[in-house]
Design brief:
Elements (H helix, E strand, L loop, with lengths): L3 E6 L7 H15 L3 E6 L14 H4 L7 H10 L3 E9 L2 E2 L1 H9 L12 E8 L8 H11 L6 E9 L11 H11 L2
Parallel strand pairs: 1-2, 1-3, 3-5, 5-6
Antiparallel strand pairs: 3-4
Helix pairs in contact: 1-6
InterPro entries: Flavoprotein-like_sf, FMN_Rdtase-like_dom, ISF_SsuE-like
Pfam families: FMN_red (PF03358)
Keywords: Flavoprotein, FMN
Length: about 180
């Protein structure tokens, strides 16, 4: 059965290593027959959450910017994929801000069940991704019908394009196929 997959590439760099992981996941998911939409945050205007909690009543954010539009797309996706570079052992600020701004989803009848994480970092240690996984899991835990379905981590990549030939690209492709 074909699923509606939303890939959020949160890197501030166009064509960065985590963005390349996202493209491989997309290729795998499309080859498996899924409908995939990719949204990149590097060219979006996303303000910080104001903490007003109006969204808990209205299921829409009072800030009308790109995050409001993206959140509405998240609402109707079967699968959400986050791709992020890892900075200081955590997700990039763009991803964290988007997670905060997705607060209108909390009281909603969201459709997503599976959430995936694709991450790239200069540091090679396998535990480099742990802080990012913990942060994303904290968000997922607020959605009782959702789960972290898989993670791909590419360590040892810094400059744009450095990920070429990294085994994580194949892992991302295969994960996309199994959605």
């Amino acid at each position: 059965m074909s699923k509606k997959v939303l890939v959020l590439s949160t890197s501030p760099r166009k064509g960065g290593n985590s963005d390349t992981l996202a493209d491989e996941f997309i290729r795998g998911a499309q080859n498996a027959g899924h409908h995939v939409e990719k949204v990149t945050l590097y060219d979006k205007t996303i303000a910080f959450c104001k903490g007003c909690l109006t969204c808990q009543r209205t299921q829409r954010c009072v800030i009308r910017d790109d995050a409001d539009v993206i959140t509405q797309r998240m609402l109707t996706a079967d699968v959400i994929v986050f791709a992020t570079p890892i900075y200081y052992y955590g997700m990039c600020g763009q991803m964290k801000t988007m997670l905060d701004r997705a607060n209108p989803l909390f009281p909603s009848d969201y459709q997503f069940r599976d959430v995936y994480l694709l991450a790239a970092a200069a540091e090679e240690n396998e535990h480099t991704v742990d802080g990012t996984v913990t942060g994303l899991q904290g968000w997922i835990d607020c959605f009782e019908k959702a789960r972290l379905a898989g993670t791909v981590f590419a360590g040892g990549v810094t400059s744009v394009g450095e990920i070429q030939g990294h085994p994580a690209l194949q892992q991302a492709y295969e994960m996309g196929q199994k959605v």
